[in-house]
Amino acid sequence: MKRSILLFLLSLFLLIVFPSEGKASAVQSKIILDGKEISMPANVQVTIVNKNVMIPIRVVVENLKFKVEWDQKSQGVKIQQDSKIISLTVNQQEAIVAGKQVLLNVAPQVQNETVVVPIRFISEQMGLIVSWDNVDKTVYLTSSNKESIQDGQVGTESPTTEDTSKPGGNPVVGADESAKSLKHVNGMNFANNQLVVSLDGEVTPTISTLKNPDRIVLDLPNTNFADSFGSSQPLDTGLKGKLDVSGYSNVSEVRYSLFTRDPYQVRIVIALNNANAFQLNHDLDSNLVVINLNDTEDSAISVPTVANSGLKVVVIDPGHGGSDPGTLSITNKHEKDFNLSLSLKVQTLLLKEPNIEVVMTRDSDVYPTRSERVQLANQLNADVFVSIHGNSVLESPQSNGTETYYYQRSSSKDLANVIHKYLVKAIGFSDRGVKNGSLQVIRETKMPAVLLEVGFLSNSAEEKLMLSDDVQNKAAQAIVDGIKEYMGVK
Ligand SMILES: [Zn+2]
Questions:
Q1: How close is the Cα of 57 to the center of ligand 1, in Å?
Q2: How far does the centroid of ligand 1 lie from the alpha carbon of residue 341, in Å?
Q3: Which contiguous run of DSSP H or E holds residue 433?
């Protein structure tokens, strides 16, 4: 083992320094492994590449005493941990872990003669718990064979029922299996008397209530915090934190923690001053879990009364909003703002139509849940439902074009085809086609319903156009033309 580490080290000095892809910014930082600071070789730094915290793999594996081999010719790194083999290649996003392909957020890179990999990869594939303290610029690593964090101790300030009870019903899955299906909490906030948790995949939450004091306990099985979580919310080295709930008279605290790590489970506790009715909304499309403490009568949406005068009712749904920003554009603009801006232009045009009554699911920066949007359209018995979104795949900035979704119903497919035709023609983005997709707002609505992905906010050319009034006006007119043609409205 020592020999191969030595070889690895030697070969690293022979490496040619590659010009790094993407924007890498070095940060003055430390790596703490199992409570001890790892001494970093000169010239080696923690860097951030496209929002991913990158750490030098060599520093970590050496300290964990894994076997490492470096192949200069193929630019490949092979890491062996017992019988598990991890193969990485510089500048390639695909890695092979125990014979299976795994996609990294960012390709390993060579920086200052050492290979750096995204921290999330390290945590999931090497059995480490990782947290990134954005304030101290410190990476905290806990190896799984250390007992420094124990079940039931994580996230407790004082032992209370919910903190000491073991979660039930979570089958323990093998390391590879759990790494594959492990989901992450990207962010969390408490606003409008709602807790909104955003995840990077589908998680089935369990919820329970406890008395004395009154608490709502939300468990997210097979879930850990994303490595970027700590940059937007407080997350201490024990992987716990609290949200700001000042201004909410009935909520004394919202705290969260990595409650167990075998299997991984995040627990969020809403401590109440008095028992409060609540609604759990689980939004599979956007991977949001929302606990609404408002009176259910008092939801973000109130169903307007529509004059029953034979007018066609069109519901326009600007995607996301409020606590749910949607995706991020290449220049860090929120999708929700694009959606609202374009949707308001559609509204303005539809208001001029004498035979159409337009209803918005939101006309400001608020977050009605997907269920509430569906409910609104169904209760109105709307004639068509159009949800407006912008696409974004930051990992692939070349992706571009317009796509339109319907779900199964042929009426929805017809509506999709006609709006798509006008939209592609009007804004001239490449035609990605009309697609069947199981998205809640178009699946659970009962009328012809479509979801438009107008273009890619992650593509710099399309972002610029999509954020311009000119292209938004063209897109709005195209959407209105499509709606009118579909409904046969003159
Ligand atoms: Zn969206």
A1: 35
A2: 14
A3: strand 431-436
Structure confidence by residue, pLDDT tens digits, 156-213: 333 333 443 333 333 333 334 445 578 899 888 887 778 889 888 888 888 888 887 8
Rounded to whole angstroms, how far apart are CA atoms 262 and 259?
10
Domains and CATH numbers, the chain: 2-143 (3.30.457.10), 182-298 (2.60.40.3500), 312-487 (3.40.630.40)
- Who's near 373: CB < 8 A, 6+ residues apart? 301, 317, 361, 387, 441
What per-residue string of b and e applies to 136-160 under the rule 16 or more CB within 10 Å gives b? eebbbbbeeeeeebeeeebbbeeee
Chain segment 388-424, per-residue pLDDT in tens: 999 988 888 899 999 999 999 999 999 999 999 999 9
CA 90–ligand 1 middle distance (angstroms) = 33
The owner of tokens 């020592």 is 2
Environment of ion ligand 1 (residues, CB < 5 A): 319, 326, 389
Please give the Cα distance from 326 to 379 (Å, whole number). 26
Q: Which of 341, 481, 348, 452 is nearest to 390 (CA)?
A: 452
Element (H, E) at 478: helix 469-487
- Cα–ligand 1 centroid distance for 431 (angstroms): 18
Q: How far does the centroid of ligand 1 lie from the alpha carbon of residue 428, in Å?
A: 20
Q: What is the 3-state secondary structure (H, E, C) of 39-64?
A: CCCCCCCEEEECCEEEEEHHHHHHHH
**Cα 444 to ligand 1 centroid, rounded to whole Å:** 17
Task: Say what the alpha-carbon torsion angle 117, 118, 120, 126 is, to the nearest 10 degrees.
Answer: 10
